[in-house]
Each structure stands twice: as structure tokens, then as C-alpha cells.
Amino acid sequence: MPGSDAFRFGSRVCRSPPRRRRFRTSVFAAWALALPIAASPASAAPEKPSTSSLDIGTAKIVDLTYPFDDKTIYWPTAPFNFDLKSLAFGETPGGYFYAANSFCTPEHGGTHLDAPVHFAKGGKTADEISVRKLIAPGVVIDVSAKASADPDYRLSMDDLRGWEKKHGAIPSGAIALLRTGWGKKWPDKKRYLGDDTPGDASKLHFPSFGKEAAQYLVPQRRVGALGVDTASIDHGPSKDFVVHRIASAAAVPGFENIANLDQLPETGAWIIALPIKIAGGSGGPLRIVGLVSADGETRR
Ligand SMILES: [Zn+2]
After folding, report:
1. How far is the CA of 109 from the centre of ligand 1 (A)?
2. Whether the predicted model's global pTM rises above the 0.70 cut
3. Over the chain (300 residues), what is each successive 10-residue block's mean pLDDT?
4. Cis-peptide into 187, omega within 30 deg
5. CATH of the domain at 183
6. What is the domain count for the chain?
7. Which residues are catalytic?
8. What is the extent of the structural domain holding 189?
């Protein structure tokens, strides 16, 4: 999410598309992942690696990303939404087909990254975040039953104690993903955000992390990132964005509007979360996937 109503957004910055380029070659890079991932990241605490080794070649890959299109949900105060323009589409005089588009988007909409600088002056920008931090074991904390009874629900210390009693300590460097069940409401903006008044972020209702939980996960458990299947790592009614501030102050990125979290086990998955590398960016569109081994799936 892009911040409170107090933030002022500039006017639309995308310019008209340049003249169509009709002749251009495309370069495709072929690559393959063949090696199994090690059991734990270099930054993992010695006390509790939560994952077994995972073979990328056989793992189930869960796409945790929503497509960017005209239904993509942005923060209500965003000055515009995702905009795709065709630059070329069709047969060329050379006798081959050619297609290319331009796109324009605020950084904070759809499945996206919050870089630490989003809520911390001098914090890391999108291009400065170590990719080591973005590829790590995932832990999924499910509060969907409580959130369905209270749309403003915040992850509590009781929830975290319950999770750790069942699975052990959340390891340092893990990506902590909060599952609220809100993905079922996407892309219905009113149901997903709790309110769809354009330009007004004062009446939002959706669940997310709570302050005490963030203070535990970030400075104590030293997670590598926080992620959630709602629009913000702070819950809808938040006015102080305290979870953003705790995470940003500790250089911990946030991942928002994560899709398909119901398809990940509570432990055992690996997360690969690679955002667009915008130099100086406060965030940006994120392609995030979960890798689940066959035995990991049984631990949901
Ligand atoms: Zn954001």
C-alpha cells in the first residue's frame, strides 16, 4: 500500500507511447534450474531450520501472483491503475508477427513489494534489497477463521505462540506469510478492501499483522520478509502504519496482495519473491512463487 491520505501523489507520469517500432529482434534467454536448494539459508538461525531439502526439478510450484490488468486492485488514493498500451501487434512488412506493449503503474498495487524506504527515510530501495532475502523458506500463519469473524483482525502473539507450539520457532531469515483467506474476495474491490470509494482510504476493513506480532517477528525472530494476502501488512483501519514502520526500520521488505496462499503448507515451502528492479523504487510489481515438495504438501 502506498501510505496514508496525507501522502500526496503527483499527476500521472506516463507519457504517450512512442512511435511504433516495427522492426526489432527479440532475445530469449534459456535457463534451467537443476540443483536442489540447500536445507536452510545462510542467515538461518541454528536452532530451527524448518525445511527439508527441496528438489526444484520435482517440486510443485505455486504461483502466488495476481496478473496485472484492468481488474488489479490499487490503494484507493492511487492516481491511476495498471495501464497497458499496445506499441505493436501484427504482421510486419518482413512477413513475421511482432507484438510489444508499454505499461504504466503505481508501484504499490496488485501483488507487489514494499521496499524498506517505503516507510523509512534512508531505507533500502527496491534495487538495493539483497536477493538472498527474497529467496527463503516460507512459514504460513493461518488466521482465516478469526478474520472471517472479524474483518479488522490483527495477527496476535497468541496466534504466534500457537504456531510455534505446533511447528517450532520461526527461523531467522524465513519469509512470514499471513493467510487470512482474503484471496477469495479478489478482484472484488469493495469486498477485498472493505470500501471502494475512490480517493478515500479512511473506511477500509481487512485483516493483517498486528503491532506486537510484528515486534516479535521482525526484531526478535528476525524474519527476512513479511507477506500477506490482503492489501497491506497493516490492517485496513490502520492510521499509523505501525507494522510498515517496524518492518521498514529493520530493513524488512513487505509483500502485499499475495495470491493463492491457500495452496501453501504452513511449513516446508520455499519462497522466491523477485520484484521488478526499479532503481530508487519504493516498491514495485512482484512475481512471487512458492516451491512445495511432495512431503511438504502433507504438512498444511
Ligand atoms: Zn505497498
Report:
1. 7
2. yes
3. 42 48 33 37 39 81 98 96 98 98 98 98 98 97 98 98 98 98 98 96 98 98 98 98 98 98 97 98 98 66
4. yes
5. 3.50.30.50
6. 1
7. 118
8. 60-79+107-292
